[in-house]
Amino acid sequence: MKLHYFILPLLLAVTACANSGADTRPIVDRPGPNYENDLAACQELAREKDYANGDTATSALVGAGLGALIGGVTGDWAGAGIGAGIGGASGLGAGAVETQNARSNIVKRCLIGRGYRVVD
Protein backbone atom coordinates (compact mmCIF):
# COMPACT_ATOMS: atom_id res chain seq x y z
CA MET A 1 0.00 0.00 0.00
CA LYS A 2 1.43 3.38 -0.96
CA LEU A 3 2.01 5.71 1.95
CA HIS A 4 1.64 8.92 -0.05
CA TYR A 5 -2.10 8.26 -0.47
CA PHE A 6 -2.54 8.86 3.26
CA ILE A 7 -0.41 11.97 3.64
CA LEU A 8 -2.91 14.64 2.52
CA PRO A 9 -5.90 13.34 4.51
CA LEU A 10 -3.75 12.88 7.61
CA LEU A 11 -2.31 16.39 7.26
CA LEU A 12 -5.85 17.73 7.02
CA ALA A 13 -6.85 15.86 10.17
CA VAL A 14 -3.81 17.08 12.11
CA THR A 15 -4.33 20.67 10.93
CA ALA A 16 -7.96 20.53 11.99
CA CYS A 17 -6.93 19.45 15.49
CA ALA A 18 -4.24 22.14 15.79
CA ASN A 19 -6.88 24.82 16.34
CA SER A 20 -9.08 23.26 18.96
CA GLY A 21 -12.02 25.62 18.53
CA ALA A 22 -12.07 26.03 22.30
CA ASP A 23 -9.43 28.74 21.94
CA THR A 24 -11.90 30.94 20.08
CA ARG A 25 -11.85 34.60 21.08
CA PRO A 26 -15.13 35.92 19.71
CA ILE A 27 -15.69 39.61 19.15
CA VAL A 28 -17.76 40.93 22.03
CA ASP A 29 -19.44 44.33 22.33
CA ARG A 30 -18.39 45.99 25.61
CA PRO A 31 -16.57 43.05 27.21
CA GLY A 32 -16.34 44.49 30.75
CA PRO A 33 -13.91 43.81 33.61
CA ASN A 34 -14.73 40.09 34.10
CA TYR A 35 -14.52 39.19 30.42
CA GLU A 36 -11.14 37.41 30.52
CA ASN A 37 -12.24 35.23 33.45
CA ASP A 38 -15.57 34.43 31.79
CA LEU A 39 -13.86 33.70 28.47
CA ALA A 40 -11.40 31.33 30.16
CA ALA A 41 -14.26 29.51 31.90
CA CYS A 42 -16.20 29.19 28.63
CA GLN A 43 -13.11 27.93 26.79
CA GLU A 44 -12.54 25.32 29.49
CA LEU A 45 -16.18 24.24 29.16
CA ALA A 46 -15.74 23.88 25.38
CA ARG A 47 -12.72 21.61 25.88
CA GLU A 48 -15.07 19.06 27.45
CA LYS A 49 -16.37 18.35 23.92
CA ASP A 50 -13.95 15.55 23.06
CA TYR A 51 -12.61 14.88 19.57
CA ALA A 52 -13.09 11.16 20.16
CA ASN A 53 -16.86 11.33 19.94
CA GLY A 54 -19.55 9.47 18.04
CA ASP A 55 -19.74 12.05 15.25
CA THR A 56 -16.03 11.79 14.48
CA ALA A 57 -16.13 7.99 14.58
CA THR A 58 -19.14 7.92 12.27
CA SER A 59 -17.44 10.26 9.80
CA ALA A 60 -14.33 8.08 9.76
CA LEU A 61 -16.34 4.87 9.30
CA VAL A 62 -18.49 6.31 6.53
CA GLY A 63 -15.40 7.70 4.82
CA ALA A 64 -13.64 4.35 5.06
CA GLY A 65 -16.67 2.50 3.74
CA LEU A 66 -17.14 4.84 0.80
CA GLY A 67 -13.43 4.83 0.07
CA ALA A 68 -13.34 1.03 0.09
CA LEU A 69 -16.37 0.88 -2.16
CA ILE A 70 -14.92 3.34 -4.66
CA GLY A 71 -11.44 1.78 -4.45
CA GLY A 72 -12.86 -1.70 -4.85
CA VAL A 73 -14.92 -0.95 -7.97
CA THR A 74 -12.08 -2.33 -10.06
CA GLY A 75 -12.15 -5.58 -8.08
CA ASP A 76 -8.66 -4.91 -6.79
CA TRP A 77 -8.32 -5.52 -3.04
CA ALA A 78 -5.32 -3.19 -2.84
CA GLY A 79 -7.44 -0.41 -4.35
CA ALA A 80 -10.16 -1.10 -1.80
CA GLY A 81 -7.62 -0.93 1.02
CA ILE A 82 -6.15 2.31 -0.23
CA GLY A 83 -9.64 3.75 -0.71
CA ALA A 84 -10.63 2.71 2.81
CA GLY A 85 -7.51 4.33 4.27
CA ILE A 86 -7.96 7.57 2.38
CA GLY A 87 -11.69 7.68 3.06
CA GLY A 88 -11.21 6.93 6.74
CA ALA A 89 -8.55 9.61 7.15
CA SER A 90 -10.70 12.11 5.27
CA GLY A 91 -13.70 11.24 7.41
CA LEU A 92 -11.60 11.62 10.54
CA GLY A 93 -10.50 15.07 9.37
CA ALA A 94 -14.10 16.07 8.64
CA GLY A 95 -15.18 14.88 12.09
CA ALA A 96 -12.37 16.87 13.70
CA VAL A 97 -13.49 20.01 11.87
CA GLU A 98 -17.07 19.44 13.07
CA THR A 99 -15.84 19.13 16.65
CA GLN A 100 -13.75 22.29 16.28
CA ASN A 101 -16.81 24.21 15.07
CA ALA A 102 -18.91 22.79 17.91
CA ARG A 103 -16.31 23.90 20.46
CA SER A 104 -16.26 27.40 18.99
CA ASN A 105 -20.05 27.56 19.22
CA ILE A 106 -19.95 26.37 22.84
CA VAL A 107 -17.64 29.29 23.73
CA LYS A 108 -19.95 31.77 22.00
CA ARG A 109 -23.15 30.39 23.56
CA CYS A 110 -21.51 30.30 26.99
CA LEU A 111 -20.54 33.96 26.73
CA ILE A 112 -24.05 34.86 25.56
CA GLY A 113 -25.41 32.95 28.55
CA ARG A 114 -23.20 35.08 30.78
CA GLY A 115 -24.75 38.24 29.38
CA TYR A 116 -22.23 39.24 26.71
CA ARG A 117 -23.28 40.47 23.28
CA VAL A 118 -21.24 38.29 20.92
CA VAL A 119 -20.82 39.97 17.52
CA ASP A 120 -18.78 37.19 15.87
What is the strand and helix layout of this fold?
Elements: H1 4-18, E1 28-29, H2 35-46, H3 54-71, H4 77-113, E2 117-118
Antiparallel strand pairs: 1-2
Helix pairs in contact: 1-4, 2-4, 3-4
Word description of this protein:
Helix content is 68%, strand content 3%. With 120 residues, it is mainly alpha-helical. The protein has a domain at 33-45 and 52-120. Helix 1 (4-18) packs parallel to helix 4 (77-113) and helix 2 (35-46) runs antiparallel to helix 4 (77-113).
Count of individual helical segments: 4
Radius of gyration from the alpha-carbon trace, in angstroms: 19 Å
State the shape: rod-shaped
Strand order of the largest sheet: 1-2
Q: Count the strands?
A: 2
> Uncertain segments of ≥5 residues (pLDDT<50)?
none
**What proportion of the residues is helical, as a percent range?**
55-70%
Mean pLDDT: 78
- Biggest sheet descriptor: 2 strands, antiparallel
Backbone structural class = mainly alpha
Task: Fill in the keyword field for this structure.
68% helix; two-stranded antiparallel ribbon; 3% strand; mainly alpha
Brief digest:
The protein has 120 residues and is mainly α. Helix content is 68%, strand content 3%. The protein has a domain at 33-45 and 52-120.
